[in-house]
Amino acid sequence: MAIQWFPGHMHLTRKAIGERIKDIDVVIELLDARLPASSANPMLAELTGHKPGLKVLNKQDLADPERTALWLAHYNALPETRAIGLDASQATPARALVEACHALSPNRGGMAKPMRVLICGIPNVGKSTLINTLAGGRKAKTGDEAGITKLEQRITLADDFYLWDTPGMLWPRIIVAKSGYNLAASGAVGRNAFDEEEVALELLDYVKRRYAGTVAARFKLDLDAAAVAALSDEDLLEAIGRKRGALLGKGRVNVQKAAEIVMHAFRDGSLGRITLETPEEFAVWLAEGQQLDADRQAKKAARGAGKGGRPPAAPSAD
User: Is the pLDDT of residue 9 over 70?
Assistant: First the structure.
């Protein structure tokens, strides 16, 4: 299953960012600390690549702390980039954003040259909650459903610090298959864009091999970690459904309900502090996705040529 979700308002967001970016000093991108690379928008990088960037690994209290440290080191090694971890509900750490922005753009500040910051992120990453924490009130709408914010908003955090909030935005083509599943599991993708049972099975496939003890403890399975890891994804989902009473007639498991239980436990953190990718894992997934995409494009070009269309011109030697 290829997971894609790009509603019409996201096209408007893309256009708004393209128009706004010329006046921006620093771009803050909120990432989900449980899936940092999967929640990083490659289209945003194209639109804002020449601006200093602050990567904020939000929801770090839900993520594996050892893996969060790996991701912070990964992003802090990039040029003109800083990265910090954050729990958007905590006021004091949130203020670190202002300091980090001034470190990235030290020549901005004061009424003559106010700091102008654009904050972006995928849907449901906690951006509106963070903005409300920073502003000390309800400046932005919040919710647990993807796509709450639909319009750009300017928020004054201080006399010389302006923050532009943009709606959550994905990208038109998700070429890393694993990213699609991780985004769906996190709640960043609208419910109508994926099959919950399939996403839950992918989620269990990953966590049973890396967090088997956590899964056994959360769902009170009468199995040790090795036994959990040895189960098939389908058998593990059924075991969870039986333990949680997700049953149909004649003792059959309601796998749809079991899938909802698994994803809810991941999203609210009750499953444990889990991160679904490391920098090394994502690099492999990205290379595979890029190769598959290149193969698809080549086949498409060949079909066009076979139907009498002109093949694409060879690249210039320049």
Answer: no
